[in-house]
Amino acid sequence: MPRTAVYPGTFDPVTNGHMDIIDRATRVVSELVIGVAVNIGKGPLFGLDERVDLLKNEVAKLKQERRERIRIVPFDNLLVDFVRDQEATIVIRGLRAVSDFEYEFQMASMNARLNRDIETVFLMASESNQFISSHFVKEIGRLGGDIGHFVSSDVKAKLVARFKEISEN
User: Fold this and answer.
1) By Cβ atoms counted within 10 A, which residue in 14, 47, 50, 94 is the most buried?
2) Catalytic machinery residues
């Protein structure tokens, strides 16, 4: 039976941790929709179109068999409504540490209350990615630290260029 899942996030920027979850999620579902949240409240460093483009570039690096089963779709509505619109029944969430669990558990419970047909599946971050967060990547990059261990070289180049652009303004 085909299973479609949504992996939602802001992806500002997409990290190696995100890509690990994306790659592993394609092992357990037949189709993966990466839902890129508008999420203006978080004050993203990159605009929605830029984040979608960064994701498309990163997904293109995956094995063909996996990338063919991935769609990248922006959204600005309730997650449960977006999942329904994508004809999905699963939400994929990555857990880095125990501290993530409480928040994710609350979100999963709330989503289940809003739509009982949606299941949340948690994937534990790989050991090498457990500490990576977009927030920390941006902070380290903004302060001139090496972010090459946390993002691809393409994403790193975009971040460096964005920080340079910001500092010149």
Assistant:
1) 14
2) 18, 42, 96, 134
